[in-house]
Request: fold
Amino acid sequence: MLIGALEAGGTKFKCAVAISSGEIMKSVVIKTTTIEETMQKVVNFFLPYHIEDLGVGCFGPISLDKKSKFYGQILDTPKEKWKYYDIYNYLKDKLNCNVYINTDVVTSAYGEYYFGFNSLYKNILYFTVGTGIGVGVIYNGNVLQGNHHTEMGHITINREKNDDYLSTCEFHDNCLEGLASGNSLDNRYNLTYEQLENREDILRQEAFYLAQGIYAYVLAFAPDKVIIGGGVSHQKKLIPFIREEFKKINNGYFHYPLLDDINNFIVEPKLKDDSGLYGAIALAVKKL
Amino acid sequence: MLIGALEAGGTKFKCAVAISSGEIMKSVVIKTTTIEETMQKVVNFFLPYHIEDLGVGCFGPISLDKKSKFYGQILDTPKEKWKYYDIYNYLKDKLNCNVYINTDVVTSAYGEYYFGFNSLYKNILYFTVGTGIGVGVIYNGNVLQGNHHTEMGHITINREKNDDYLSTCEFHDNCLEGLASGNSLDNRYNLTYEQLENREDILRQEAFYLAQGIYAYVLAFAPDKVIIGGGVSHQKKLIPFIREEFKKINNGYFHYPLLDDINNFIVEPKLKDDSGLYGAIALAVKKL
Reply:
């Protein structure tokens, strides 16, 4: 029996059918356009495989309260057309299958936990640094989920002394997303990630900001691994800088064996850009 | 059958025997002195009751890894005499009973969850603002515990513009504990909590710092309640100020019904100064 996996993103939808070991048998990438067009293509892809279980990692926020009638519905997203779209029930009905849905970042975190690191590390923080910044938490081998989705990208951080740039977050003058997201970098410097390679000053500042967010949540979860994914992490120099800034902030205070081995503690995703797609497979395999 | 409860603090040890409803039948407060003297008094208190289960909330850090041979042992504490003291096995052996141990702040959080709010709210953040600053998390009705104790009091925060005070944390120039703990307040102003009543400037700054830490962890856990305990919270004006600063920082961004009702969201402990003692009872009742 094939398992379905969908990573629903703002620019593209990735669909795959896979076996439970995670081996992908067939996949397709669909450009995100209107709801009707995009979702029709998604359904057309999956229909022939008669899947029973579909995992979905979806851009958010989405309702994750199983007792709510809005469960699995996209909520107040900046993607106007998709606001309040009930992706969960649409897929359930059209494909006549079980749907296991979570946010994109939590799904990616779970993909890294389950397939990326073979469930070896039970406590994982997954940061995605793309257009926005999000954090997914795997806690004792399970997805961390309170009553409400979380918003760790909006933590208050300390600016560098001479940084008086206007935050791109319309709510917060000094939040991580407003100062360090891909969106913020684009607005400030208008450089592609590749072009940042020779701008160590920018990368150092980016690393300093990200390290503060990482540090705050490492203090809270004492994770086994911190994974940095998303577009910004494609810049190869960034993660080494983040490690340095993290060490500076920590200054030897918090330590345990996995944290102390910093090069294996703050790492890039094992699954590269497919953490989310594999995460969706994992959600379906584990029926989460 | 009576249940034993011990709140082991740096200045005093509170001991109680109670029934499972939380009704305390007998209690005693012992001044913390040497290990030998203090622990002998603790044992003398409990021995006559032949308890089977003892809950312990202990100043830390303590080892909470059940697979470790150091489990329940006090680790690298500034209280030199108590460093590496195996309080867990001592109590287990001398009282011949089951011992359920956790850190003081987590035990307090659990006390508020279980007895304070009658398990009505499954996700609780408990901040203790005393000599130091600690945070205990109840997540889906359970104690949050990864592989290692957490250290949320050391989150990096933004200083107020003209605050160039030297942090009391020897590791961090800008951490919450270093700038906003009771220790830091004492060092800066040499005023008792009562005397702070007419120093709204100090209380506002304190609230601004605490609100940043609270905000960061509200974003992570989306809790049902945030409880502010510890000595500093005795200053009655503080919590209203914290609510104001929290609202300013959030600026309407993160919202859900429990958070939006801010006066019932950021609150003082229901159990006043006995969160830890009741928490210890609860640990033993639930055999955690």
